[in-house]
Amino acid sequence: MDTSSSLHLSWSGRPLSGSAQLPASKSESNRALIIQALAGGGQLHNLSDANDTELMQRLLAEPATADTLNAEDAGTVMRFLTAYLAITGRQVLLTGTARMRQRPIGVLVDALRQLGARIDYTEQAGFPPLQLQGRTPQPPAEEPVELRVRGDISSQYISALMMIGPQLPGGLRLRLLGKVGSRPYIRMTQSLMQHFGAQCRDLGEVVEVRPHAYQPADYTIEGDWSAASYWYAMVALAPAGSSIVLPGLRQYSWQGDQAIVGIMAQLGVVTEFGAEGVTLTQQAPALAVEQDFTHCPDLAQTVAVVAAATGVPLVLTGLESLRIKETDRIAALQIELAKFGGALLDEGDGRFRVPSAAFQVSGQSIDTYHDHRMAMAFAPLALRGPLTILAPAVVRKSYPQFWRELGTAGFTVTEQT
Ligand SMILES: O=C(O)C1=C[C@@H](OP(=O)(O)O)[C@@H](O)[C@H](O)C1
Ligand SMILES: C=C(OP(=O)(O)O)C(=O)O
Q: Is the CB of residue 357 less than 8 Å from the CB of residue 368?
């Protein structure tokens, strides 16, 4: 699909039913690929077909002589590869899209420099591109190096450092400073590292990694809970009597975005776990909802759109990291919600509010801002009226089959060039 095209979406008015295929988790996939490369083997099953994951695979397979690697718009690829390339002593320029060159990476580079890596900024200090100078970190062997790392910008720096910890002669101790966001992603890193034989403890303010080598292991990636959130939104917005089955999700997940189960229970969706995955059905929503997104930032757009469309007043906190993701997601939400009569109001002190307001879906065009989650969070509104999504190919970052799955579920999906 051409990035310049648009998609017209509409719905017949009957209840939603059947099942939908999810991609595999890109967060699990991209960690497993880095760890597999460091472990020197093991089989990974059900890897994501997301561009972020295919990109990670391609870049890891590049010959050591490659002089430039392009992480495109993939945060995990940029951050995890920076640490991986530093520990493996590669001399290479690591770059990304224009937006990636605005997403900060100074916290990670400072930490790697303290370990002895030589990394230079080629444009703006603190941001990609990075020139890695091929000097392997060589901290003293006797004891773990202790690094102080801010946790309030991105947890991806912490995950990146954790994953190279077993390769350091004395291991690594990370002292996390400030408010630590996206904590479940740190725990996911720990769980995957342990699965591959590493010794790693998350003690809250401190994360310890022992210098104990990874062992090759097999791992089957779970379905992606962030991607599941869009199907939750569809069930919340669909006509009465709707349901959907999502195979490939586990009841005991390593993904923090499983928080969507509890959040959507308040916005009218019941989750039932079975052997094959989950079944989503409808129930009456709560009168008002308050939700902290500090640890599940990728769910904020989905939930804001559902609240606006269903008229359930929503208070959102913990949105700090949204401004430095694929786009400024707060600004993008404000502009797009306004097209329907909705709003995301900044109340100060980190509180935002989606008020209950008249909300009408009647042929609006949604700008997607190079952000897959803008496209997927607004698409479910097509259940309430016709809608056009601009530059729909953005979904390839995490859920390339999203539009095909909407078609299978019964949406009329018409490409316009
Ligand atoms: O580690 C990961 O796989 C991710 C961590 C989160 O980022 P932050 O830690 O920057 O919030 C999340 O938003 C991103 O989609 C994936
Ligand atoms: C923020 C995201 O990804 P990343 O930071 O890995 O680019 C996302 O997928 O919503």
A: no
